[in-house]
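## tool: complex_structure
## caller: assistant
## args:
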Amino acid sequence: MPSNNKSSRLSVLKTYKLYIGGQFPRTESGRYYVVNDGSGNPLANACLSSRKDLRDAVSAARAAFGGWSGRTAYNRGQILYRMAEVLESRQPEMIRELQQSGSSSAQAKKEITACIETLIHYAGWCDKYQQLFSTVNPVASSHYNFSVPEPMGVVGIVSSSENALLGLVQAMCVAIAGGNTCVILANTDRPLASISFAEVLATSDLPGGVVNILTGKGSELLPWMAGHMDVNAVLLDPSTSVDRAALEQAATVNLKRVITLKKEDILSPYRILDLQEIKTTWHPIENIAPSGAAY
Amino acid sequence: MAKKTKPLRFDTDWKYDPAPESASAAKINEQYELFIDGRWQKPQSGKYFETINPANEKILSRIAESDEKDVDRAVRSARQAYEKVWKKMTPAERGKYIFRIARMMQEKARELAIIETLEGGKPIRESRDFDVPTAAQHFFYYAGWADKLDYAFPNKKVAPLGVAAQIIPWNFPLLMAAWKIAPALATGNTVVLKPAETTSLTALKLAEIIQEADLPPGVVNIITGAGKTGAAMVNHPGVNKIAFTGSTEVGKIIQRSIAGTKKRSTLELGGKAANIVFEDAAIDQAVEGVVNGIFFNQGHVCCAGSRLYLQESIAKEFIQKLKDRVATLIVGDPMDKNTDIGAINSKSQLETILKYIQIGKKEGSSIYQPACTLPKKGFWCPPTLFTDVAQSNRIVQEEIFGPVLAILTFRTDDEVIEKANNTPYGLSAGVWTDKGSRIFNMTRRLRAGVVWANTFNKFDAASPFGGYKESGFGREGGLHGLTPYLEII
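## result:
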């Protein structure tokens, strides 16, 4: 039995893996990169995700879409609220992790609090935005006609480069509160809190595959995300420095919607609407009194 | 065992006398110029192209061909009108202009319907009862929004985008012009619109109406030409918004050319709608709905119900009834008020349709076309049904844009949802059943922007229209049709 003469015990370093389909796999590529702390010293290794990891994440998101969008809005709200509860209880750990990546104690506290508030805010939106954006349409014929918002499907999210965790939580909420599933490319330089946040997701009753988180290089993964035939939309954080023209060109392959997250108006239900389609349904009304007489 | 059905035999006992609408009730000029800055201006190239009646191939008129310089003139005129006049006008006054256009369209409805049919080939019954009145309704509907935009988006401020470049197809020329122009004007934008090169005339007639309505010069510019003109509009740096209705292929080209710019876009593209009939549906009504779904406007409809899914237990009976009904359709002179299926819009579209009919046969499907005598001149295609079709066949996967229906079968709701959604498109869908809970089960799971239950191909100015997936984005019609022309702040 190895002895340890020092008074403090040897710390256990955490391995940061990917979050795909509710599981925490390593990258299939076997590649990793070193994540530094605020002072530039090595802090941990993170997975350098490959195109195949992205593919697996998209497959998981697609598989989860029917179930997630088919749940009651009330139930989705409950799950988002549960995330807030779990994150609340893990505050100290998450704050420490943000500090390790260079945030000041005050900044880290502020960011985690903002994440929790965002989750609660969006938990409440889950069963309300539909009523704001739905209409019953007064058509000039004997039909009942109404329009409702529906989720676009699988959303690729390019996460924030500042406030790495808050940006991720905001974009995720916008997508999943509206019934979409998503694949998130976490911030390259500060990915650790994102993966720890995945542990919150994994213990929040969120079905596997609704949110998938990859770490790695945007320059490697983005072209494949933009060109993927089974991704319906790409949501960009405004702080990311992506080649927008190239991304939009690649996105035309299946007419992906490319949307920049309007962070100055992040609490608005219009953000959810950004990732919704409008469906209009018609049905005839039996015309028993065409003259307009009522009886 | 399938029930025996009794064929409908309208043709034996009753004969339809010819009931032609008179072409003389419409005035078509020998030549049309470009409508720019409120005046008729010659194209700078001096070039014109001919437009013909697809039912007899006779030349109707000569249309100006715009090049980049003409596009530039039109965009500048629209910009000038936006900055100097339209943006500053009170919304209520803006609305009154749009109301005025709507009224004048109604007054000239007969002439517009005749020209629509002469140049487009669609039955006069459709242009008279559908295209023209629905187009006028669209102007009426959006006119009223002009001074109510603050109520449409609570807690938000809205602002127009600027100059909208609008490119429309040949299947509903006047109606598509209305769908584009009316919401753009109501929201305070100015317009450069280009109709398709085979159907310029009703848009030019609309320009005459706009001139007569005294709309300030440059608020609406209507220029003519083909794809090159459209490309020049899309690429013009002075344009803030592109609104396009047409094929998915061209939609993608447009998207690529504006990638990385600040230009906003709305795309209404192709479709391959599933029309699903369950065994408990009112069969005779469903047959009518299926016929209307695919043969309305010769099938030149992006939301046409071109894939029919029949529940296996009723397939045999349904197909027989459908064949019997299709045999009674009157194919021929579009100007005849009894005509059900008019002329195919152009020679090239006819070639596309015939190519797909060959593909269908080659893929091993069985074809049914009723015996009908087609006129010698012009472009014609009889109503066509394909049975023994597989989901992977090209006539099931690709948009044909003609009177060709692919018929498939299914057993369970899960199976038919899987098949119906198995397409890159997502514009429309139909479901026929007498069971309310099943209607909502289906309409909820169908990934399409418009779902018709126990009806098909219904449109209304108040009803949002537009697709999921590769059928495009943005909505036209209704409250939701305002959003694509506004900055919501």
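## assistant note: The longest helix of chain A spans residues 105-125. Chain A touches chain B at residues 135, 137-141, 143, 145, 147, 152-153, 232, 244-249, 251-255, 257, 270, 277-284 (CB under 8 Å). Handing back to user.
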